[in-house]
Amino acid sequence: MLTTLRNIVQEVSSASDLQVALQVIVQRVRGAMKTEVCSVYLYDPEKTSYTLMASEGLNASSVGQVTLAHCQGLVGQVGQREEPINLEDAAAHPNFHYIRETGEERFTSFLGVPIIHHRKNLGVLVVQQIEQRRFDEHEEAFLITMSAQLAGVIAHAQATGSINNVSSSSSAPRIVRFRGSAGATGVAIGDAVVITPPADLGAVPEQACQDTDAEIALLDGALAAVRKEMRETAERLADRLPAEEQALFDVYLRMLDDRALGQEIRDRIRAGSWAQGALRQVIDEHIRNFEMMDDHYLRERAADVRDLGRRVLSYLQEGVQAQVRYPRNTILISEELSPVMLGEVPQDALAGLVSVRGSGNSHVAILARALGVPTVMGVVDLPFHKLAGKKLIVDGNLGLVYSSPAQELLDYYTEVLEEENQFSKGLEATRDLPCETPDNYRIPLWVNTGLMTDTIRSLDRGAEGVGLYRTEVPFMVRDRFPSESEQEKIYRHQLESFAPRPVTMRTLDIGGDKSLNYFPIKEDNPFLGWRGIRVTLDHPEIFLVQVRAMLKASVGLDNLRIMLPMISSIFEVEEAQHLIHRAHAEVLAEGLAVAKPPVGVMVEVPAAVYIVRNLARRVDFLSIGSNDLIQYLLAVDRNNPRVSDLYHSFHPAVLHALQKVVDDAHKEGKTVSICGEMAGDPAAAVLLMAIGFDMLSMSAVNLLKVKWVLRRIGMNKAKQILAQLMKYDSAPVIRNALELALCKEGVGKVLGIKSRRFFGG
Ligand code: PEP
Ligand code: MG
Q1: 467 within ligand 1 shell (Cβ under 6 A)
Q2: Pocket probe mutation, ligand 1, options 509, 527, 604, 702, max atoms within 8 Å of Cβ
Q3: Which residue is closest in CA terms to ligand 1's atom 4?
């Protein structure tokens, strides 16, 4: 059963559009269940009705014509109850609704199961048979499993442009909108550039062929290069491999032969595809054929074909990598955006970012916020292969992407864009003013840095200090660990740029979703694994070099603060302090006069929340890393788009934890700041000030917005709002009540509420 299921799902997944996918479903499910009818009814939420979209067994002329109201007939019942209905005599059911056009009077028994994706009813999958007998429990289980697996594929096919099929009779054009999560605020309008990681066949976009001869020449070169590589490998292994294994290389070489795969790919290029797309199509088809074979050995060969495909692709890409052109308003799209991809686009050309994977809390999104580029993350249904060159709107406030938008929508977003630009110009006026509330409460605003542009932008916006310098950023852009003197130069620049303002340097925080190419960490559960301080305490040589570089960089400036990430026990703090002490002694021994800097810890693990007083007694300051603290408190992976709806900064548990940390740190006479992304949310900043944080540290992009709001809301008012919100027990209620209260105070404009309400996002 598993193999049948897998084969059907694979075949459906590779269908070119929704209609083909549905046709494959009804044909293959009817065959697998050996029944007489299989049909799919899809639900149209706008019309609140079902349409028969595909059928094997019912009259073909009724497909696309027959509709049922949302609770009409057995199909309506299945959808409404969201559970299967299995009947040996369908006509005897009180809800049975006879539709003459389908010719279903010949079929007696009925089994219908709902198709549900992310809690949404997409439709109903039905099988029927002539014989009067209930479908047995194995058949029912098979259909339920089938439907659960197909739901994602159908949702994806709907989202990828065939969406109009459901309401083909609708005259109003439907906006093709894809939902993700907000990555970086702001709106962008531009042209899509799709970036694929090298040699990833699944990520190759569809693209028309500009010059057939050139593409064929490219292909021939790639095939020849792979054949050469194969021959050389075979020769190298000749005396180590048994004869039958060696024969495998002959098989590969034959597959790569001009008359085999080569010919098929060439035919597709001549039919209009570019070489990479043609390769992908041919390889996909062969993989599918192999995977559908019943013989285990032959099924395994699919992996060989995939590998061959990848090898050819890497040669094809060698020739074209350099040719990516970035138009003036580039919207960069990738299945998984990486910091390196961002770095390749000229700064003035990059208008927006869209990633199929990841969420607003992924590090690439944090980077995007630092760069001030509107970003949408986790757009899981985005047909990114098909978007190259298309006009797109990226709404980073709401986490929405629109493809090929209608003029009306473009006009609307152009207006939003202009308003945003004007508002930011107005914000500039607060640049040199202190962050002081109308009732004279002063709260320092610091910045989070890592990139060079952060530093420039931060100084430009009047930052009063650096609350978090992510030292891993300079580690990530190299292909080896930077040496002590290289690090010293980088840190010196950072410390000098801000002096005499304090700069909080966090020791290397790798692991989780931050890896170094040259120091790979492979774990099943990286966020609960070897991360942050755990790595550096296990590698004192890395830690000591880094701390020495920091200390040497601060000679004569004395504005350094050192902060330790991912602390979950006192023991870690003591060990780290011991190493810092040693590094300091070594620097003094080299004859450099440098004061021992304040040392602080990040509170980003729930365990730390409950030992704040103990921690505070041992350190000079604390800072809450709310990005991680929220993920660990709520058990919601900050990168997983499937659960991003559950990642709530305003969850009552989060607010209570923040309050506890602040109170406990103050009881020990220590300052506490917050440097997670929450601090840069102007609405959240009001609450954080009321909770009692001594400073807020945020991406420089948000600094003026936060200052603008705090200069308009008194501390007393903020405390009143907080007291009210602490009584609520639900995160969305708290968020809405907060926004409402801030709108009443006249600062709604900065919260992006206008665009949020416009399309009901
Ligand atoms: C945090 O976790 O809130 C934080 C500031 O650290 P990072 O986002 O770099 O993990
Ligand atoms: Mg963190």
Answers
A1: no
A2: 604
A3: 625
Could you give the residue ranges of the DSSP H alpha helices within 321-374? 339-344, 363-371
Of the candidates 18, 17, 13, 758, the one whose C-alpha atom is nearest the C-alpha of residue 393 is 758
Run of H or E residues at 176: strand 176-179
Which of these is catalytic: 286, 363, 584, 648? 363
What was the pLDDT predicted at 140? 93
Tokens of residue 334, six digits: 């990738």
What count of other Cβ atoms lies within 10 Å of the Cβ of residue 660?
Answer: 15
Distance, CA of 513 to CA of 268 (rounded, Å) = 39
User: How far is residue 115 CA from its own chain's centroid?
Assistant: 25
What tens digit of pLDDT does each residue of 240-276 get? Answer: 555 655 666 777 777 777 777 888 899 999 999 999 9
454, 470, 505: which to mutate for ligand 1, most atoms within 8 A of CB? 470
Spatial CA neighbour of 277 closest among 253, 312, 323: 312
Query: Does residue 634 contact residue 648 with C-beta atoms inside 8 Å?
Result: yes
735 pocket-lining for ligand 1 (C-beta < 6 Å): no
Burial grade of 294 (CB within 10 A; 0-12, 13-18, 19 or more): exposed
Q: Are 500 and 463 in contact (CB under 8 A)?
A: no
Q: How many angstroms is it from 329 CA to the middle of ligand 2?
A: 32
Nearest-5° Cα angle at 467, 464 to 473:
120
How far, in Å, CA of 9 to CA of 151, rounded? 10
Residue-wise pLDDT for 636-649, tens only, equals 999 888 898 899 99
Residue 39 phi/psi, 5-degree rounding, is -135, 155
Least confident range from 10-24, 275-289, 461-475: namely 10-24
DSSP 196-216: --TT-GGGPPP-B-S-HHHHH
Task: Tell me, yes or no, if 363 is annotated catalytic.
Answer: yes
The first and second tokens of residue 179, run together, are: 């939902």
Mean pLDDT of 701-714: 94
What gap in Å lies between CA 599 and CA 584, rounded to an integer? 12
3-class state of residue 439 by DSSP: coil
What pLDDT, in 10s, does the model give residues 90-111? 999 999 999 999 999 999 999 9
Q: What is the pLDDT of residues 585-632, one digit of tens each?
A: 999 999 999 999 999 999 999 999 999 999 999 999 999 999 999 999
Q: Which of 697, 685, 621 is nearest to 464 (CA)?
A: 697
What's the pLDDT band for 318 if we cut at 50, 70, 90?
A: confident
Residue 470 Cβ < 6 Å to ligand 1: yes
Residue closest via CA to ligand 1's atom 3 equals: 625
Q: Reduce the DSSP state of residue 223 to 3 states and report it.
A: helix
What's residue 434's pLDDT? 93
Hey, what are 348's tokens? 């003035």
- Amino acid at residue number 741: A
Tell me: pLDDT of 175 over 60: no
C-alpha torsion sign, points 373, 377, 380, 381: negative
Active site residue 743: no
Q: Which pTM was predicted? A: 0.72
What is the number of alpha carbons within 13 Å of residue 690 lying toward its C-beta? 23
